[in-house]
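Researcher: We're reviewing a set of sequences before deciding which ones to prioritize for further study. For each one, I'd like a predicted 3D structure that I can look through quickly. This is Transcriptional regulator, Crp/Fnr family. If possible, include the structure in token form so it fits the rest of the review sheet.
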Amino acid sequence: MQSRAEKLQQIFGQDAVFSAFNTQSHQTLMQHVKYLRFLPQQQILHYQQKMEDIYVLLSGRMQIGWLLSDGEFKVSDYVKMYSVFNLVPFLQQKPLNFDFYAVEQVEVAVISGQVFLEQLQQQPQAMWQIIQLLSERMYGLMEKNRYLQTASMTQKIARHLISLGQQARSAGQANSSMQFKMSQQEFAELLHVSRQTLNKQLQYFIQERIVEWNYSQIRILDLQRLKQISHF
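Model: Here's the predicted structure for Transcriptional regulator, Crp/Fnr family, in token form for your review sheet.
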């Protein structure tokens, strides 16, 4: 089993935020990191928290959303991509506009923001790569917003299943083996519909053998069909 330091080093080599840094910069960042562990349902970052450091997800799955005044958590998205998850608010020096909670046990590496910026300013290629990454994310958010405003519920379900399956898939795992854990209630909250409405919509996917949904275990059986359905 990999140690937390080994996981972080692997992310440094693969993730677009870090991969253009040179070896010396990677070593410097490793000298200014602390590791945190969170239990299921524990808050990781909170709304309006000021971002002074870089947070990197090492293991586990998070949910992003808003904690309402009545104590209900409104889910916006689930994250299981092992990368920096606060890059935009950190670079903008603005407080968070989301709450982050652990869905399962989560490990996070916290890297000194000051050291990260010092290294970034010395690495033009790394800076250019981050600019490209942020541009891609901005374009993706615009496309996602257009899709959510115009797509049918069936298309939205297909798109979310693809996204969640890709996040859960480990490196080198075949597309046909995409599976992940999520309850129908969690999925309904993600789509902002009732569980009853979601259950009716899911029957098509289940009857057509596109997905299997047993308790909280989802298995994608026909990724190609999902992609076809998700398109306009």
